[in-house]
Amino acid sequence: MVTDRSRRSAERRGHVAEYLAAVFLLLKGYRILALRYKTRSGEIDLIARKGDLAVFVEVKARVGEREAVDAVSATAQKRIRAASDIWLSRRPDAARLSQRYDVIAVLPGRLPRHFRDAF
């Protein structure tokens, strides 16, 4: 049974994981354009940019890499793609941007793991 307390704790862990992932991407030369971008269609944890590449990132805090990647369901992927379409539609430079969908796994006691083109 999920209690309010456990839900808040999980939400807090998720936000910390998103910040860690954002710092990780900054150190890799990406610019962070949005954190927790929300639309009616869905939410994107991070939107980053490197050159003419827009990267839509789902962040998962899990005990293992496989668990993190597998946690991004087909339904979640569909919502992220729909939200990215909305974000791109609001960008005047969208026509010249390439796009990619990544997963960053935040693992206990380790550096985050970046899975490019995860879906």
TrEMBL record:
GO terms for molecular function: nucleic acid binding. It holds the Pfam family UPF0102. InterPro entries: Restrct_endonuc-II-like, tRNA_endonuc-like_dom_sf, UPF0102_YraN-like. Belongs to the UPF0102 family. This is UPF0102 protein GV68_12665. It comes from Pseudorhizobium pelagicum.
